[in-house]
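The pair is quoted verbatim as follows:
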Amino acid sequence: MKIFAFLIPGLFLCGCAGSISQNISQAPAPNLTLQDAVAQSEIHKGQPVRWGGTILAVTNNANDTEIEILAEKVDSSGKPLYSNDAQGRFLAKVDGFVDPAIYSRGRKMTAYGLMDALETRKIGEKPYVYPVVKVQKYQLWPNPSESDYADNSNCGPFSLTAVAGIYPYGYRFGYGRCF
């Protein structure tokens, strides 16, 4: 009976595990940057890459879908970081149909695949060289909720909670959601 007491919670925890592919959550061995791929495309052709960023456009073709992504740094699990530090743009080519209503402009996405080639297109009147990735796995990240951001409106020694005496031993710097 004691075995079941440990087994059942373990099964529930396994069911709660995320469904992020190992290719997305772990960077490939030589972690190729976007700039290196553009500078030496012939050398890096066929190498695995894991890049992520913000979706700019989705174009469905007859057999595949092209997703234009503004590349951003990714964290250790492969999720693009929210920052203004863009690294460039790349094209992710996915086999089959990808719904542009779901994979819409502004959503965060990570793509894992093989570096294919360079493709030159125009952004406005300016030619731009895109590295192309033949995508094997991809992850669309959920939109951030308001709770993902810190609420700093009620922080500090002169905040309403500190002045009202809610802290029984005075304000303790650095505790809570403020910092």
